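Hello,

Our lab assistant flagged a job as stuck in the queue for most of the afternoon. It eventually completed. Since we weren't sure the result was trustworthy after the delay, we are filing this so someone can double-check. Below is the sequence as submitted and the structure that was eventually returned. Let us know if re-running is recommended.
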Amino acid sequence: KWPDDVESAPEETLTDHIQRVLNECGPNGRPRAPGFSAFEAVGRGAKVTSSDGRIQVAPDLVFRPPHPRTVRNRGDWGWFVECKIIAGATWVRKYVEQGVSRFASGTYAYRMPSGAMLAYVRDQSTPHACLAPHLPRGLRAGTSADTAESHHERGALPRPCVDVTITHIWL
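-- returned structure --
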């Protein structure tokens, strides 16, 4: 829908486009995105609480699946996604330092065992090759060339939380 934006728009614009497409419904009232009928609307920039109690943190996208009865606070329940542009080594460093580290430190998804990093790739990079030097332990290749997974132990943090596996999706 927005080919010029894919090439040059800032992260916020691209994330807004992704959110709008994921929340779009057809004439029958169901989401057009396959598999999204089980989710509430995908939120963008919704503030969440971090493991150390900060309330001004906001992952770029939050997917809210149905929650089991055992969830004590629905605000802590979801699939939290941080988005970054990838266009060279400097951008990969930013992806790790201002994205992955937010999950590893318990800033995002401190009660969830999974989260995601979404990259808008402008230089043909692939996640496993680019992230391996930055995440030498716990990085696994994904099911395709544009995905990878990393595992981060968070039990030894000053405020321990559940370990998290991050799915890296590079578009």
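-- support follow-up --
The delay was a queue issue, not a problem with the job. The result is valid. The first helix runs from residue 3 to 8. The mean pLDDT is 92.
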